Amino acid sequence: MRTLLVEDDEMIGSSLRHALEGAGWSVDWVRDGALAQSAFADGGYTCVLLDLGLPRQDGTEVLRRARERGDTTPVLVLTARDGLEDRIQGLDLGADDYLLKPFEFRELLARMRAVIRRRDGAAHSVIGGAGLQLDLTTREVLRNGTREALTAREFALLHALLERPGAILSREQLENRIYGWGEEVTSNAVDVLIHGMRRKLGPEAIRNVRGLGWRVAAA
């Protein structure tokens, strides 16, 4: 899955990016509010981790503008601002959750999973239909009762498709979910990844719609 990390502190940002990538996330890290605004507007993120005290543009303004244009991407605010009014303002502007610094990385991951589940309208950690499911906690695919581990990019691919079963996702949409901002992507990268997934899950698990993209069966 792909996240936008907005954090101006070099030590915190570097540490978080390293830990998130180790947990299987693709991370775009920006260090000020203006860059955050641009990256946020480009879209394709599963979740946004947003600091409030940013140079050039405050995090609350980044959040306000995103919600005003109808962006519903889950936003988890990471901040040292512990005042009640700050928390109320962030939540009123559309933040999905608040986490005060310093925090444990395991709690951050748990809160990220929680806001994503709420966005998906799910009270549990499994999405998909009876034949093909994805466990967001263990990062495993469930295929006809059998569990199998996934690589980070396989997980991101299936998560994108299973969020919208039956919908056709284009090559560009899938690339945006699988790869980081500015990361070089070869022309056939998605094809190679899907070919490997079909070998693992069966040829009908992910279907190609010629000239348009790929989809999984509607639940």
From TrEMBL:
Could you list the residue ranges forming a coiled coil in this record? Answer: none
Keyword hit for Iron: no
Task: Report any Pfam family annotated for this entry.
Answer: Trans_reg_C
Is Transcription among the key words of this record?
A: yes
Task: Kindly give the SMART domains that the UniProt entry links to this protein.
Answer: REC, Trans_reg_C
The OmpR/PhoB-type domain covers: 124-218
Q: Which residues bind DNA?
A: 124-218
Q: Which UniProt keywords apply?
A: DNA-binding, Phosphoprotein, Transcription, Transcription regulation
The Response regulatory domain extends over 2-116
Could you identify this protein by its name? Answer: Two-component system OmpR family response regulator/two-component system response regulator QseB
Species in which this protein is naturally found? Variovorax soli
